Amino acid sequence: MEKLITRRATVELRVLNLNFWGLKWVPSFVCKDRQMRLNALVEVLSSEDSANWDFVVLEEVWSNDDYIAIADSVRRIYPHSHYFYSGVIGSGVCVFSKGQIISVLSHAYSLNGYAHKILHGDWFGGKVVGLCKIAHKGLRVNLYATHIHAEYNRVSDEYLPHRISQAYELSQFIRMTNSDTDDVNIVAGDFNFEPDDLGYAIVRRFADLKDAWMTRLDLDSADDGNTCNTPDNIYSICEGKDDRTPRGKRIDYILYGQVQGRTGVTCGSCQTVLNRIPGSKLCYSDHKGIEAVLEVGSPDSVAPTLFSPAIGPNVVPTFENTFDKALAVLDSGVRRINQNRQVYMIALVVLFSLLIGTAEVDRQSLALARWSMNALRVTLVMVITFCFWSAVILNRIEYHALLAARNAMVIQRKWDDAQSETATSAGESEKAQLPGVGLQLKHLDSKNDAIDFERNTDDY
To answer: Are 140 and 106 in contact, with CB atoms under 8 Å apart?
Structure first.
């Protein structure tokens, strides 16, 4: 009888996440077979037999026309949808839901690469975290969708401070947008972080989330969970004989967590899906999709945390080390900004000297040479403008964004340290009831780490 009551009290939510790889305004050899892949995806999402997910989260749907085409085609199955517009070409992130979308909110990440890195393109996409509050099956669901900046060079990742800042902003956005009326948080997207990366640890630890893949009950599945650069995907990029991940990487996630004081959430199953298109040699994307079956409203007893043998339980940094490593990355980013600013200023002096020097050439040259000098001047002015804009404006914006993330981490770390000390202090009942008092006493006479750091690094 008890089992029957428990089963009735549990609500099942099915979630699909897929990075679609839908670059429309590029040559076909850059984004291969886009239209055929789009048609195949629409066919899956518009079929009652195959579209058994409650929520579908897509990334890299860069074309508004593609989003509208998908939304119109699947409206009978998924009557509610939303696209998170951002940046120059749009964030590429969209949500399709069987339940009513009550409200939406998005946050564009403060740092998102560089505009002059045109071939990388992240800056133009305007990466975001979007929230859809959804009423479905008697629950209030917070569905977060995101796409974090890509990792282009793992050995020397120039974007790592930006990516760490995005991961922290994502975790704080999730923490700050919960309410007492919500039942469950679900986070889906392409994180571009592997499970042993710092950014993954930041999102999980600071937002108090569980990884559906790592906590699934069907651990005996032969599925390895990898979603990117897998050998069975025809669009995978081979990294050569020294490839550290010959079986691919797990960078697409479905994370979940229960809102404080609400019902429990467990993951019944999680697997990769939507790889090879049936009856075709093509794949739906250069990523595999991932789906999770979450059970909400189960008994409040916490299920033991399980880990995939392929991942291991010790790859995620501890909460304390996460702070240390994240602050170190942001500090390195600030130092690089100062170095870049010096390079830009030196370049400005050299280029401006060359520009002045062209005046003497004009007086001693033929007409053809003067035309060449005019073309050179135009080029010099453009480069000078870029260097000035980068040194005075863009570097300052980047500096402030990194400083904001760092200062927020310092504040959170102090609070967590104070909470830990209060929880372990025996006999101090008043401090246990008012932990903020302990925080004030501890740091009353100490230096403000954030202000001290800014004084030492702000050379502008």
So the answer is: no
- Catalytic pick from 147, 162, 287, 400? 287
Burial class (CB in 10 A: 0-12, 13-18, 19+), 46: middle
Contact 185, 142 (CB under 8 A): yes
Computed over every residue of the chain, the mean pLDDT equals 82
pLDDT tens-digit series, residues 143-152: 999 999 999 9
pTM of the model: 0.85
Residue 129 near residue 107, CB atoms below 8 Å: yes
Q: Are 263 and 297 in contact (CB under 8 A)?
A: yes
Tell me if 406 sits within 8 A of 453, measured CB to CB: yes
Q: Is the confidence at residue 181, as pLDDT, over 80?
A: yes
Tokens of 180: 């007492």
**162 is an active site residue:** no
